[in-house]
Amino acid sequence: MALVLAAGALAGLLLLPLATKIVLGLIGFSAIGPVAGSIAAGTQAAIGNVAAGSLFATLQSIAMGGAFHGVLAAIGGLFGGIMGALFN
């Protein structure tokens, strides 16, 4: 059972970057900024001046390839902790 959980967790971790880019793209976050007419563009218009470090800024950074490395590092640490607990 633990091996199946580990395999599922590893598959999820490996697919996370692709899934994240797809979901962010669907709501309008792109590598060059929010797509005109999208949910992301509407949200940015409603917010006005987007504060650094806000959720919107973080999502845009992930779409542009910036913040995602930190997110993956945190998830990788969590994955390692779970695997350690399962196999210990």
Automatic annotation (TrEMBL):
Listed name of the protein: Uncharacterized protein
Keyword Isomerase in annotation: no
Main location: membrane
The keyword Transmembrane helix is assigned to this record: yes
Keywords for the protein's UniProt record, in alphabetical order: Membrane, Transmembrane, Transmembrane helix
Family: Belongs to the IFI6/IFI27 family.
Bilayer topology: Multi-pass membrane protein
TM stretches of this protein: 35-59, 66-87
Cellular-component GO terms for this entry: membrane
Pfam families in the cross-refs: Ifi-6-16 (PF06140)
Subcellular localization, as worded in the UniProt entry: Membrane
Organism: Lactarius akahatsu
